[in-house]
UniProtKB/TrEMBL annotation:
Gene: tatA
Protein name: Sec-independent protein translocase protein TatA
Similarity section: Belongs to the TatA/E family.
Gene Ontology CC: one annotated term: TAT protein transport complex
Keyword Transmembrane helix (UniProt): yes
Length: 58
């Protein structure tokens, strides 16, 4: 089920009601930083696996 513009608007409205307009930018920044850190960590694990596989192939 894809999210359309109406669904996104409703979610944004509910988020503003729950958290308030002042805290939303802080929440967005924290979420972005968390996702970036998670992405970097998973990439690091994948790179480590690739390095280990290359060493076994030699």
């Amino acid at each position: 089920m894809p999210l359309g513009p109406g669904s996104i608007a409703i979610i944004a409205f509910i988020a503003i009601l729950i958290f308030g307009a002042d805290k939303l930018p802080k929440l967005g920044k924290a979420t972005g930083e968390s996702l970036r850190e998670f992405k970097n960590a998973t990439k690091g694990i994948a790179d480590d696996d690739d390095d280990a596989n290359k060493k076994q192939d030699k």
